[in-house]
Structure prediction request, 438 residues.
Amino acid sequence: MKVSIVGTGYVGLVTGTCFSEVGIDVCCVDIDETKIENLKKGIIPIFEPGLEEMVQRNVKKDRLHFTTNLASTLNGCEVIFIAVGTPPDEDGSADLQYVISVAREVGQNMNDYMVVVTKSTVPVGTAKKVRAAVQEELDKRGVNIPFDVASNPEFLKEGAAVDDFLKPDRIVIGLESTRAEDIMKRLYKPFTLNGHPVIFMDIPSAEMTKYAANSMLATKISFMNDIANLCEIMGANVNMVRKGIGSDSRIGTKFIYPGIGYGGSCFPKDVKALIKTANENGYNMRVLKSVEDVNDDQKSVLFNKMMKHFNGNLKGLTVAMWGLSFKPQTDDMREAPALVLIEKLIEAGCKVIAYDPVAMHETHRKIGDKIQYAKDQYETLNDADCLLLVTEWTEFRFPDTTIMKKLMKQHIVFDGRNIYDKGEMTAAGFTYFCIGIN
Prediction:
């Protein structure tokens, strides 16, 4: 079976590589020539555990190919996935220009039946636009080539994407013909042999499912952050509250950890897009608007705690920062709370020295030399007035407090992920602040 994937970003590269891992002939397409040449050599543009080795293995076995020429991949191709970016416009809506551009190019070059699948996160109704774009180009050519469109949203967690794809909770596929269903069943058969479910549905429902899933998870995060802030005011311990509600099977333990807000490529963009879609159709998503507001405020919670502790004057302070990426096991800095925090600290006159195991290059690409970058976590602490724990990387979980005390000018820790025990940190001689515990 031959499959083409257009877009070698996070979704496209993981999708194409995992398909090739089970023996499917995959060609990944991108307009970025440098990226394609690097991928041919097994050099990947993102950090994702296990992905680089898998790319190299399947390139070597001649199952995974990379090109900038979409037309050359279409002969014999049964399924083409559109996995290009859908960045948010200023009004929050998803920008579909790249999706439609690919659809047009498919229509200009296809010569036989295929299923055109949107893998990118796209608003309800996008498949209709994709179908119209393909058909328009076929009409211009004066040819009558049958095709189907489908929606196959991704549910990949950054940092665990390979496992998520190979061992999915569920596979959601929206389609409109039995022919397309038969092809998609055959494509995903290697992933369903162990009982992982495929849920077939109509295309609008599949498109909505992705937004609904991410919005529900974002809601849990913002709800818990709201509860954490109230816990501090009322003298309750959010860690105890979290355990108390997480034991309820209707709620569960996932996504109820308080912190400094969600970020990344999915939740912020998808929440905005769903709010925008609702507005365009005359409906006000009141809960999701509040979810977004809470998240925006939560990204400033550590800064606000610092302002309170230092009596409103942070000028001249040296601030150590552990973690930059929006979560562990990724170098993704999109909508990362660290970026908001850094801007506020610099505006307040602070010197910021940061360390992250994998995201410093990406941070430098985004903000340059606004901050200093350390070679390890302890180098950030030299003469530091305080430490901000921003991303809960495993290597930060059990720091040597003796070394910390020797290096830091003031022994103050602001824990944005609640990974330390307040009693232990206090006993070690630190002034300790976290989320949701007074």
Summary: The first strand starts at residue 2 and ends at 6. The two ends are 59 Å apart (CA to CA).
